[in-house]
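Give me structure tokens for this 423-residue protein.
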Amino acid sequence: MQHTRVHLTVGRAIQPADPISSGSCGPEGRPRAGLPAPRGLVLGLLLASFALAGDALQQSAGKYQVTLRLPPGGLYAQEEMQIEFRVADTSRPDPLSGFTPVVRLAPQATIDMPEMPGMPPFTETAHAEGTPGDYGIHPTFAHGGEFRLRLSLQPPEGERVAVEFPLHVLDPEKAAHRKPLAPRFHMEVVTEPRKPHAGEPVELRLEVRDRDHGNAVVTAFEPVHQALMHLVVVRRDLSHFAHEHPVVDASGAFRLTYTFASGGDYRLFADVAPTNAGAQILAAKLAVAGAETVGFDIRKAWIQGAPRVRQAGECSIELRSPQDSLPVRQTVPVIVEIKDARTGAPISDLEPYLGAPGHLMLVHEDGSTFVHSHPDASAGAAAGTLRFLARFPEPGLYRGWVQFQRAGHVTTADFLLRAGEDR
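Here you go.
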């Protein structure tokens, strides 16, 4: 689950953005030596193998290497944090990422304070991220201090293994004085022709650049749900939505030929994973000349009554989770139920679409806050039910687009949701 908020500028080469806090039911269309694993539970608590690499911590348990990714600004108490970890099999070299990522794990995360044995531990449900081998948790720490994260991992084959990491959590009052960090990655966009015009094809060239390597163009990427880049195109008023997949060339640039249906200010959100850096949401904006179609007023649409059920061809798509007063900066489920519009029976023939049962993309009314979520694979779901885990970074209205696939065809349905209290 990725999210971002950006401040965007117009130009032929789109400048980097600031980071955040992260249809129809028819056609659409270092290497580290592993240790021998003992019998039973393999406790990979090998502090001697502790390695610090940027913001990442590494531990090994048998043939498995676990890399922890902490937020660049550190961990703070009394707010939901995002911690990611990557699991790789060191017995299986991979030419792109070093070692083969381990998928279909059943991770269990437990957090405690070794210096305060009287404080009960708490558990976190880990979920798979978009990049194979990447997993995430979203803990909220009651107060600052020295914590310990224990990860128990059940590989698809073999015995369960475990590793642990120390976590330093800062007190909440320090969060108010922290300074925003410049993002490591940003995206530059160049168009041909230089000034795009509605109704005419335009070639988009998108380059991902790395601040930590002299602002060089990134040339190595990992797939995120079967694509090297997911590009979401929305108009500023949220009246237009498209989910595209540019192709990377030998220089590392992504290219896409696209025709904008109408003029206006557009937002481009790219979901991409530079090798060994985890999934990133990068954003830019683009001005398109030409006549603008009738806009979408999200506030007006909300006041008039946002529907919870959408009809799309032979499908009825219903929002089954709360639509209003959703908590801000907390991970919550967003549940949709898909039924046969004629019989009311749950749809049972959903197909994987880009490696997931479905996709949920949310854009805030500010046009700059973006969330991309996938169904929670750790929780069993009934036929036709998609249970997404989403985090709303800002209060206000969001327009969300749900996509799923049946018989090779992609269906898109949209809903409005509101996080926090009305402003």
